[in-house]
């Protein structure tokens, strides 16, 4: 069987299969990190209750640590939502349209998400770079750790949206529509 005997759609799908495998691995890692952070959040919240009511010595660092952890969980979840095409959107109007305008609006939506992700990454980088010397009160970590999820999410969003655009250009359904 020569390359010309393979249907074009099959060739395009196999071309994106490696990319999808890598991006699915990135999503798996994001889920793992968010899950571990959720367990840590529950653990330190339990320590707060134990310290306050049993030891009569409230650990003051828990609030700041919880805020940092929640930011990571939230932004990793947002990036995953972009990859899986489950992000917040009002699509009932778009989906009611005929195929051609629907496809144009899907690409337009991806382009808006791409610009938004780029803006998040750019502003996140500014916050990370500009806050290396400032410490988060009570936990002593650099404020850059609190801003890093903005940068990470923006970069992940850009990568995931570009993968969707590549799939769309090749005529393959995007993630979430497989």
Written account of the structure:
With about 180 residues, the chain is mainly alpha-helical. It has one domain (about 5-170). The protein has 5 helices and no strands. Helix 1 runs antiparallel to helix 5 (about 145-170). The protein is elongated, with a radius of gyration of 21 Å. It starts with 7 loop residues before the first helix and ends in a 9-residue tail after the last helix.
Give the low-pLDDT segments.
Answer: none
The number of strands is: 0
Mean pLDDT: 88
Largest sheet, in brief, is:
none
Derived from helix and strand composition plus strand pairing, the structural class reads mainly alpha
List the helices and strands and how they pair.
Blueprint (H helix, E strand, L loop, with lengths): L7 H46 L7 H23 L8 H5 L2 H32 L13 H26 L9
Helix pairs in contact: 1-2, 1-5, 2-5, 4-5
Brief digest:
With 178 residues, this protein is mainly alpha-helical. It has five helices and no strands.
Attribute tags:
single chain, 178 residues, mainly alpha, 5 helices
């Amino acid at each position: 069987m020569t390359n010309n005997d393979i249907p074009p759609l099959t060739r395009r799908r196999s071309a994106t299969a490696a990319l999808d495998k890598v991006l699915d691995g990135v999503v798996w890692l994001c889920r793992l990190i968010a899950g571990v952070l959720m367990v840590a959040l529950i653990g330190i919240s339990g320590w707060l209750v134990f310290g306050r009511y049993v030891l009569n010595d409230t650990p003051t660092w828990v609030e700041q640590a919880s805020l940092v952890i929640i930011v990571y969980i939230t932004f990793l979840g947002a990036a995953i939502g972009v990859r899986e095409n489950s992000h917040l959107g009002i699509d009932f109007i778009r989906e009611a349209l005929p195929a051609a305008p629907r496809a144009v609006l899907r690409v337009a939506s991806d382009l808006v998400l791409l610009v938004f992700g780029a803006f998040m990454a750019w502003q996140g980088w500014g916050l990370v770079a500009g806050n290396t010397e400032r410490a988060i009160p009570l936990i002593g970590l650099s404020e850059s750790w609190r801003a890093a999820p903005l940068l990470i999410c923006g970069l992940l969003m850009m990568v995931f949206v570009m993968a969707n655009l590549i799939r769309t250009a090749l005529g393959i359904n995007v993630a979430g529509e497989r």
